[in-house]
Specification:
CATH superfamily of the largest domain: Dihydrodipicolinate Reductase, domain 2
Bound molecules: nicotinamide-adenine-dinucleotide
Largest sheet: 9 strands, mixed
Radius of gyration: 23 Å
Distance between the termini: 36 Å
Order of helices and strands: EHEHHEHEHEHEHEEEEEEEEEHHE
Shape: elongated
CATH topology of the largest domain: Dihydrodipicolinate Reductase, domain 2
Structural class: alpha/beta
Oligomer: single chain
Number of strands: 16
CATH architecture of the largest domain: 2-Layer Sandwich
Amino acid sequence: MEKMRVAVIGYGGMGGSHVDSFANSEVVELAGIWDIDEEKIEAAKSKGIHAYSSLEDLLSDKSVDIVTIATPNDVHKDIAITSMAAGKHVICEKPVAMNSSELSEMIDASHKYDRLFTVHQNRRWDSDFIAIRDLCLEGKLGKVFEINSYVQGSRGVPGDWRKEKEHGGGMMLDWGVHLIDQILQIKKDVKIDKIFSVSDHITCDEVDDGIKTDIFFEDGTLARVVVGTSNFLSMPRFYVCGMSGAARITTWGAVCQVAVCTSWEDEAVKPVKTAAGITKTMAPRDAKTVEYYDVKLPDSDVHDFYRNVVKAIHGEEEQLVKHDEVMRVMLVMEAAIESDRIGNCVKFNDII
Ligand SMILES: NC(=O)c1ccc[n+]([C@@H]2O[C@H](COP(=O)([O-])OP(=O)(O)OC[C@H]3O[C@@H](n4cnc5c(N)ncnc54)[C@H](O)[C@@H]3O)[C@@H](O)[C@H]2O)c1
């Protein structure tokens, strides 16, 4: 099959990453890039990459099938709609837009111009997430009642547009969007009841530099999503509790530690003695009543994202990152932001 030609708009960190990835793709190839920053244009040219002279120049290139948008978040919507109107299929970086009403306009445009429109939710291909998702869905831990997903750094918000509200800065839109999307992939069919969220402003006033978002599902599961940028030590990346087991991934690339209860009764509990007291309730179990084992993280290939886009354009597969999924993520983020604003829980009117 002939490779589809992709033009990348915004040749910064993520635009560069898309461009680099095409070198190893059997389904897409680079047509060129466009960026409003002359330095980025020169950087592309110095690598032998074709740089268009304007957005119009790019969109009038009939050889371009797909446009990948990797600009700051505030201009995603206009570029996406203009590109679809010009006949291009569109892949938009996350967060897809600044809010749900912008996203509605983008979805409407994809129907109006009959173009594929999807979002680069690449962290669905993270192997730590896949391991946790599969454990939750296979039921090995019994009924899962709590999923904790933490991403923590210690360098504050990057000092570019991510610090500025008008460009869609802040960690909710930057990392929250990934973590919420992952949770909603695990809980695709379970309605959300309510959301409680608190934003951090430890190193930055204008936008949040971290979030703590609790998503309460109607089946009783609590998903806690935490993003931090002032954490010199981190909580585990994932920590999941089920009625008969638990799973934990301590950090990027670590194995998934699993504990499965083999016998609830534990006769010979040795109390833990601390400096100031004793406890049997909180004493750890041992191999007599719990089986402990490690699960290696599965292999994963993020090129499957572009493979799916190409097949979906040819009508051979359903697109993996769907409109209603990105809308649900956007609505959860909006409810979380509202919860932080009012300092209270927000009832969620789920769309599934
Ligand atoms: N999926 C991921 O893992 C991931 C990772 C990083 C960033 N992103 C997303 O990618 C997007 C870009 O982030 P980044 O880190 O690459 O930012 P960046 O600042 O490194 O790059 C953005 C580029 O867009 C250019 N630009 C700005 N306005 C433009 C316009 N109107 N037309 C053309 N070019 C324009 C800038 O000059 C810059 O070169 C954001 O939406 C971000 O959330 C996604």
